[in-house]
Write a structure and sequence with these properties.
The complex is a heterodimer of chains A (487) and B (532). With 487 residues, chain A is α/β, with parallel strands linked by helices. Helices cover 31% and strands 26% of the residues of chain A. In chain A, the strands form 6 sheets. Chain A has a 6-stranded mixed sheet with strand order 7-8-15-9-10-11. In chain A, 47% of the residues are buried. The N terminus of chain B is likely disordered. In chain B, helix 9 packs across helix 10 and helix 9 packs across helix 11. By secondary structure, chain B is of the alpha+beta class. In chain B, 23% of the residues lie in helices and 20% in strands. In chain B, the strands form 4 sheets. In chain B, strands 9, 12, 13, 14, 15, 16 and 17 form a 7-stranded mixed sheet that branches. A 4-stranded antiparallel sheet of chain B has the order 1-8-6-3, with no helix packed on it. The chains are: A alpha/beta (487), B alpha+beta (532). The interface between A and B is medium-sized, with 30 and 29 residues.
Chain lengths: 487, 532
């Protein structure tokens, strides 16, 4: 080895991975005066910024704009008519790439301002204190660190019988490639009806693709209750998206995807779904390979690296944060862990003790959930002999929501609703959900309520500005207390 | 913001049985829960002032001698006033809660507590709850006083029943009135204990902090961070916030109490683990509900009954073998409870009591006050029925459910009946019947039983049998000329020395011991003419 004799670079904190967990840990560690190095082969920001949350939101918004304009070519809406509308997806992608690029630069700038060192390269642990780094320029470094933070994230799960890559009909792709297409596929088949597949599938439907969603469970978004997902199901239907539930992708044939539609009603029918692109979104796996896990002795928690409430692993001064440590694999969880781990390394008395980790599905309509859903609340509170009170408020009765809907003829149920769940004995809020246009932003209010330990009365007695969609939260709380005004 | 509207209900106040007026008020009285109960204690309120109550919704839990009873509202309404604080004792038939009916255009939550008549001596009965709310809202006290001055000060004014006399003081923008709990207390014939003027009372009721479902302490993120930075374990900080939440004020109080000691309450900055610190906090909680009953019962027992306690060791080896054999026979039978030691002990008691009837008795000393010499003589009532009290630990404290007519039970049926009644007690479903009328009591802490205990007699009974821990001990076997391991267990039994002499007590326990050491005796018919 050529670098064998070379003096290793030293750093107090080595962070492997520059995603939402790693870069936040890097900034916070720098702020706390630690000598910190962040290593990632990709531009700073990880999956979220480069090929996940941010670019998908850009594409979803572009699709919304396109669909809204196109709808007005058929017949005027809100008194607006549009003569012709077209999309140049390559230009859309360039716009998206510009956003991503700005954010990459922004994050890198923040790290530098905090005094963190950023190395574009790939790190592999040799032991719990040393990493071998191959930079993107081909340079080999050895870095010795007092503390190592593993923030390697997650990657799309690849199905063995549907490998990513080109096929006779086109290609099998992951979300990463879907966010870099240069044209709108004519026929898109999405395997996996979770949030990633539905966000992208619906966006491409709005952009003009004929979309089919294949979901093995009996409902889309199986982690959410049916009442919450129903407005989305109806919207997909209106967009012409075919949703096959209880269906299994079993392989490829020259024209597209081979599926088995299960259940007695269908007699296990086999069908070919013609496609240009098959988008596989069946989940994500923690990245536990390629960074030297085999060279360190870490206790694992199933597929994940096991950590304690300070994000410490089973090995001294080796820490881990983000998707590699478990569910929910969400950027904001990783970010909070990033802060916690930096503070813990700096010796501050800190723990990751969040009560609320909001989850958002950026479909149309949007879905937000914080805390427990109705079934979990009934189970968990029931097990300690406490009943659940529930309040709901339909957005069909919300003025601001009406002003956002071009088509007032859509059924009231499609407008969405707010739902709040609380303990019957002391009215402590244990869960809040909403589905509807523009509800994603309310994750802030929902999270605050649960994290602060709000009671129903706290929310019902807080003045919510009018006219806003968010009024629905106060109304739902009042409804649970038996005195909704507009419900 | 609409003007605050007071629903005036004086027209209907005082006539509890009618709720005819749709805009009046309705007083729910303390119900007669039967069994000659004359007074009840408020254990908990399910509602607060301003809450909307549906018909048949539980508004309060009250406790009689032993049973806890939920009191439902017979009408829909809005709570205008509560008849007392938790821990207050109310006479049956006195006002428990006043509900506003109807409510006009105002939101139910705007209903003001109107004063009842006549204004009783002013006493801050609900001080703790009022402070509770204040601590929560951080309201300005003066503002509260002005806006909510109805309370005691204007009680007479409101008593006129003039609905137009409602205060409608304009508020500065941004200042909102809140329904407040400082309404004048409803009249009650029962003198109320004044609340002590302690730091706890100025800060509101202090409770142990609530936990989230996964066991975390209920507190805002800022409070949690402050606690960590001060090296405090939030579980140790008394909570006054809504729903048992630890507030900043609670932390202040805790920190203030601990800094007085002059010893650092937190570790040095950067210490990840809290240092060991001196703790000087005091958490006051009134003895209410079951705990108060237990205290009264214990004082009554130990202050009037001269206890004599007798301890003897019993070789349980044979009985344990029999028990194991019998349990194997019912393995997998869901309808039969596994036999514990208790049904055998019950059987032994019923056998022995046939020869020692005076141990299955009540000594009624209420007539003459034993030893004082005045009034009539005390009365000893010896019972033929054997109702065995089974001292049972519940989440709320010690309760003694009763196995009725133990003399009529087999060991099998006794096992089932004991399991049923103790389970009902632990889950709070036990009826008054289940919890009263025992004639002799067994007290067993199982594996926690220790070597010796001094059980307190369940007055007015005259005997209690305490079961200590069973353990394998070496016992000298004369025939074999060596020590042999035997399952030994002590019985610690107390007797009322007024009616039971030491000699009889010893014989009673020895008879019990003989039954347990030779379990065949448990099931053998009495030998004709045999007596101890």
């Amino acid at each position: 080895m050529t670098e064998a004799g070379a003096e290793p670079t030293t750093t107090q904190v080595l962070i492997i991975g520059g995603g939402p967990g790693g870069y936040v840990a890097g900034i916070r560690a720098g702020q706390l005066g630690l000598d910190v190095t962040v290593v990632d082969a990709q531009p700073m920001g990880g999956t979220c910024l480069n090929v996940g949350c941010i670019p998908s939101k850009a594409i979803i918004h572009a699709a919304d704009e396109f669909a809204a304009a196109r709808a007005k070519t058929d017949k005027p809406e809100m008194g607006i008519s549009v003569a012709a509308v077209s999309i140049d997806l390559a230009a859309t992608m360039a716009w998206k790439d510009d956003i991503v690029g700005r954010l990459n630069d922004g994050v890198t700038g923040l790290l530098k301002r905090a005094g963190a060192r950023v190395i574009a390269g790939r790190a592999e642990l040799i032991d719990g204190k040393t990493a071998r780094v191959t930079t993107n320029d081909g340079e080999a470094l050895t870095i010795a660190a007092e503390h190592v933070v593993i923030a390697t994230g997650s990657a799309p799960i690849e199905l063995r019988h549907l490998p990513f890559g080109e096929t006779a009909f086109g290609a099998v792709i992951s979300s990463t490639e879907a966010l870099a297409l240069d044209h709108v596929p004519e026929r898109l088949v999405v395997v996996g009806g979770g949030y990633i597949g539905l966000e992208l599938g619906e966006a491409f439907a709005k952009l003009g693709s004929a979309v089919t969603v294949v979901e093995a469970e009996q409902q889309i978004l199986p982690l959410y209750d049916r009442r919450l997902t129903m407005p989305l199901g109806r919207k997909l239907k209106r967009l012409g998206v075919e949703v096959l539930t209880g269906a299994r992708a079993i392989g490829l044939d020259p024209t597209g995807l081979l599926v088995e539609v299960g259940g007695a009603d269908y007699g296990n029918e086999r069908r070919t779904l013609p496609a240009d692109r098959v988008l596989v979104t069946v989940g994500r796996r923690p990245v536990t390979d390629g960074w030297g896990l085999e060279n360190v002795s870490l206790t694992m928690n199933d597929r994940f690296v096991a950590i304690d409430e300070r994000c410490h692993t089973s090995m001294k001064n080796v820490w881990a944060i983000g998707d590699v440590t478990g569910e929910p694999m969400l950027a904001h969880r990783a970010m909070k862990q990033g802060e916690v781990v930096a503070e813990a390394i700096a010796g501050e008395p800190t723990v990751f003790d969040a009560r609320a980790i909001p989850a958002i599905v950026f479909t149309d309509p949007e879905i937000v959930s914080v805390g427990l859903g109705p079934d979990e609340a009934a189970d968990e509170l029931g097990s300690i002999g406490v009943e659940v009170v529930e309040g709901r408020f339909s957005l069909a009765a919300n003025g601001r929501s009406m002003t956002l809907r071009p088509d007032q003829n859509a059924s009231a149920a499609d407008a969405g609703f707010f739902r709040i769940l609380a303990r019957a004995d002391n009215h402590l809020v244990v869960g809040i959900q909403a589905v509807g246009q523009g509800v994603a932003e309310l994750a802030a209010a929902f999270g605050l309520a649960v994290e602060m330990g709000a009671r129903l009365e706290d929310i019902a007695d807080t003045i919510h500005a009018h006219p806003t969609v968010g009024e629905g939260l106060a109304e739902a709380s009042a409804a649970s207390l038996g005195h909704a005004i507009h419900g | 913001m609409s003007e605050t509207q007071t629903t005036n209900g004086e027209s209907a106040t005082g006539s509890s049985s009618t709720g005819g007026s749709s805009t009046g008020s309705f007083v729910v009285k303390v119900p007669d829960v039967g069994e000659g109960v004359a007074e009840v204690e408020i254990v908990s309120w399910s509602v607060g002032v301003g809450d909307t109550v549906a018909r048949l919704q539980t508004v309060a839990e009250v406790m009689t001698d032993k049973a806890t009873v939920e009191v439902p509202s017979p009408v829909d309404g809005v709570v205008a006033e509560l008849g007392g604080a938790v821990g207050d004792v109310l006479l049956v038939g006195s006002p428990l809660i006043r509900l506003g009916l109807g409510g006009g255009s105002g939101s139910p939550r705007d209903a003001q507590p109107a004063a009842a008549k006549p204004p009783p001596p002013e006493r801050p009965r609900r001080q703790s709850e009022a402070a509770d709310r204040e601590a929560d809202q951080g309201d300005d006290g003066k503002e509260e006083g002005r806006e909510e001055g109805g309370g005691e000060g204007t009680a007479e004014h409101e008593e006129t029943g003039d609905a137009s006399a409602v205060r409608s003081t304009p508020r500065p923008p941004g200042v909102q009135a809140r329904p407040h709990a400082t309404g004048a207390p409803m009249s009650s014939n029962e003198p109320q204990p004044a609340r002590g003027a302690t730091s706890a009372s100025t800060r509101g009721r202090v409770t142990p902090p609530s936990r989230t479902l996964d066991g975390k302490v209920l507190a805002t993120p800022a409070v949690r961070r402050r606690a960590r930075e001060n090296g405090l374990d939030l579980r140790r900080v008394g909570a006054t916030g809504p729903a048992g939440r630890v507030t900043h004020q609670d932390l202040d109080a805790y920190l203030a109490a601990h800094s007085e000691s002059g010893i650092a309450v937190g570790g040095p900055p950067g210490a990840a683990v809290a240092a060991r610190v001196a703790r000087t906090g005091v958490t006051e909680s009134p003895l209410i509900g079951l705990r108060r009953r237990i205290a009264q019962q214990m004082v009554a027992s130990t202050s009037t009954i001269p206890h004599i306690t007798y301890v003897e060791e019993v070789d349980m080896t044979a009985l344990e073998e029999l028990r194991a054999t019998l349990n194997r026979r019912v393995q997998g039978d869901d309808t039969q409870t596994r036999l514990t030691l208790l049904p055998f002990l019950v059987r032994a008691l019923t056998n022995v009591l046939a020869d020692f009837p005076q141990f299955n008795a009540h000594l009624d000393d209420s007539e003459g006050g034993s030893g004082s010499g005045d009034g009539g003589p005390d009365v000893l009532r010896v019972y033929e029925s054997v109702h065995v009290g089974i001292a049972t630990q519940t989440d709320n404290g010690l309760i003694v459910p009763v196995l009725r007519h133990a003399e009529a039970h087999t060991v099998w049926s006794a096992a089932n009946a004991i399991a049923e009644v103790t389970e009902a007690t632990r889950t709070g479903r036990a009826s008054a019947e289940d919890l009263s009328g025992s004639t002799i009591t067994i007290s067993s802490l199982g594996a926690l039983g220790g070597i010796v205990s001094t059980p307190v007699i369940n007055k007015p009974e005259v005997a209690v049998v305490g079961v200590n821990k069973m353990a394998v001990r070496p016992v000298w076997n004369e025939a074999a000329g060596q020590f042999t391991p035997r399952k030994m267990m002590n019985l610690s039994s107390s007797f009322d020395h007024r009616v039971i002499d030491g000699w009889d007590a010893a014989n009673f326990v020895q008879a019990l011991r003989a039954q347990l050491e030779q379990p065949a005796l448990l099931f053998v018919d009495p030998i004709p003419g045999d007596s101890p």
